[in-house]
Amino acid sequence: MTVAVSDEMLPAAAVARMFGCTLRTLYNWDKAKELVAVRHHRRRYYRLSDIEAFLSGLSETDRQ
Fold first, then answer.
1. Distances (CA, A) of 3 to 29, 37, 38, 39, 40
2. What is the mean pLDDT of residues 11-20?
3. What is the dihedral of CA 46, 29, 33, 14, to 10 degrees?
4. How does residue 57 score in pLDDT terms, banded at 50, 70 and 90?
């Protein structure tokens, strides 16, 4: 199934920069179903709503 990329999605590299982590960390979170990526043309994108939900699930100490 192919999902169209919308304006509400960010590429994996942008999300990694936003979190200050590596792409490998994002891929591990995706594999663990913690922050699931949408695949489109062999690339990973992340929905803003999923990123917000992921952040709201982190404790204060995890965010620092």
1. 20, 11, 7, 7, 6
2. 95
3. 0
4. confident
Of 29, 34, 30, which Cα lies nearest the Cα of 53? Answer: 34
Tell me whether residue 4 is in a domain: no
Does a structural domain hold residue 46? yes
Burial grade of 19 (CB within 10 A; 0-12, 13-18, 19 or more): middle
Average pLDDT over residues 1-10: 65
Q: How many domains does the chain have?
A: 1
Could you tell me how many residues make up the chain? Answer: 64
Q: The pTM is what?
A: 0.76
